[in-house]
Amino acid sequence: MPQCQGCRICDQTVWSTLSDQALADLAEHRVSSRFQKGDVIFHEGGACFGLYNVCSGKVKLVRAGRVGRQTIVRIAGSGRTLAETDLFREDGRHSVTAQAMEETVVCYLPRPVLMDYLKTQPTMMMELVQRLSDALFKAEQRVESLATKDARMRLAEFLLEVAEADGQARDAGGIRVRLRLTREEIAEVIGATLETTIRLMSALKKEGLVADEEGHILVLDPERLRRVHRPGAGGPVAHSVM
Amino acid sequence: MSAPQPARLPMIAPVELRGHRLFERLEAGDRTALLALAKPSAADRGTLLFREGESCDGFYFVLAGIVRLYKVSPEGREHVVEVIRVGQSFAEAAVFSDMPFPVHAEPLEPSRLLFFPKEPFLAYLREHPHCLFGMIASLSVRMHQLITKVEALTLRDAGQRVAGFLSRNGAARGGNLDLSRHTMAAHLGLTPETLSRTLAALQTQGVIVLEGRQFSIADADTLGALSRGEVHLG
């Protein structure tokens, strides 16, 4: 595996608190790897050997269900950290499976190096605490959404999120979601069955709110979609998965 | 909103913090130093401690009582995000992430609290970074609990959620539902009607026996199987 040469994304990752000198010191330990769509980066229950940063691409963090359905806990894009909570678990195992949703480059730092380093770097630890707190906040919002909103509202919420986080405005109007998402993946994020998800997507299409274009979702009318997500309210969407 | 007025309270021993996830891995000296920053207070049932969206000026530790954290939907429906009991804290994530309070907080009964003001607390950690290790570990555990909750909400049907709740909250034979039906329903992401129907179905099928707020577990095997999703309520 090639040594990480550092990349443009470094200033958005957990390494952003480090000085150039510190980054250079760590460079010999950092390893970057390229994964193709569908490749597994680490497995739920497997030993956690270090901290991962997503340099480019998208990764889904998945929990395998006991009843044959799985849940996408989070979708992590570039600049996000993976396995930051597993590093400090007493059993040292991954709590989720990380799988590339498209071609993805991940930069990895082995656990012993990270642990030694953190002892001398309070700012980096604060950054980790803040990232964890931030992830907790988003997870709490996700719990709220799952508990209080029906499947149609959750679908609208998710589509608005991906459009905002990963969308490109089209000349012809509307927003094209760059990431290709299968109906199964959408179902696994919003916590609905595949059948329900297909039915709800069809309804949104018929209403002219969304469309499909070569496997990409088009959000045609974000304003009306926002009213589906929060009847009687406008305003920005709380990010719960990105 | 700032912390409620300090009340006359007995001295708080550092030992009370020892079981808490933010403090459990700290050395006794650090616990004592952090405790010295905290302000004790008392709050009655229904006193709003803070509102969602307010700037966060610190976090709370519960010495006695119960506090509910909730959100209000645009339609005015209250949804309980969490119920905080003795020995637990809340709003610490907002302190570290420099975000406003994400929820409303209100005691369900007269409660004694410790308030840790944000700025002195963070300043101490910056000067004593070894404390941060223990805190990261604790937050990780909390994160895993939430992931489990997300999974539960995504995958479980009402019977499974209620069975899981009763299994977790009852000892081998049963326990006390110290939450109102309304609070419990909101906590499980169910309507109160669905919760009542589900509890009645569990009773009809001989899994539990309800007497007021007391419940006893008549068939622990079935309750366990229900909570794991291996069987479903008919």
Structure notes:
The complex is a heterodimer of chains A (242) and B (234). Chain A has helices at residues 20-27, 111-119, 122-148, 151-166, 183-190, 194-206, 222-229, and strands spanning 31-35, 40-42, 50-56, 59-64, 70-76, 81-82, 97-100, 104-110, 167-169, 175-177, 210-213, 216-219. Chain A has a four-stranded antiparallel β-sheet with strand order 1-8-3-6. A four-stranded antiparallel β-sheet of chain A has the order 2-7-4-5. Chain A has a four-stranded antiparallel β-sheet with strand order 9-10-12-11. Chain A folds into two domains: 8-146, Jelly Rolls, CATH 2.60.120; 150-229, Arc Repressor Mutant, subunit A, CATH 1.10.10. Chain A has 242 residues and is an alpha+beta fold. Chain B folds into two domains: 14-144, Jelly Rolls; 156-227, Winged helix-like DNA-binding domain superfamily/Winged helix DNA-binding domain (Arc Repressor Mutant, subunit A, Orthogonal Bundle). Mean pLDDT of chain B is 81; it is low at 5-10. In chain B, helix 5 (158-169) crosses helix 7. The interface between A and B is large, with 45 and 46 residues.
Main traits of this protein?
heterodimer, A: 242 residues, Jelly Rolls, Arc Repressor Mutant, subunit A, 2 domains, four-stranded antiparallel β-sheet, 7 helices, B: 234 residues, alpha+beta, 21% strand
How is the secondary structure organized here?
The complex is a heterodimer of chains A (242) and B (234).
Chain A: H1 20-27, E1 31-35, E2 40-42, E3 50-56, E4 59-64, E5 70-76, E6 81-82, E7 97-100, E8 104-110, H2 111-119, H3 122-148, H4 151-166, E9 167-169, E10 175-177, H5 183-190, H6 194-206, E11 210-213, E12 216-219, H7 222-229
Antiparallel strand pairs in A: 1-8, 2-7, 3-6, 3-8, 4-5, 4-7, 9-10, 10-12, 11-12
Helix pairs in contact in A: 4-7, 5-6
Chain B: H1 28-37, E1 39-43, E2 58-64, E3 67-72, E4 78-84, E5 89-90, H2 92-97, E6 104-107, E7 111-117, H3 118-127, H4 130-155, H5 158-169, E8 174-176, H6 181-188, H7 192-204, E9 208-211, E10 214-217, H8 220-227
Antiparallel strand pairs in B: 1-7, 2-5, 2-7, 3-4, 3-6, 8-10, 9-10
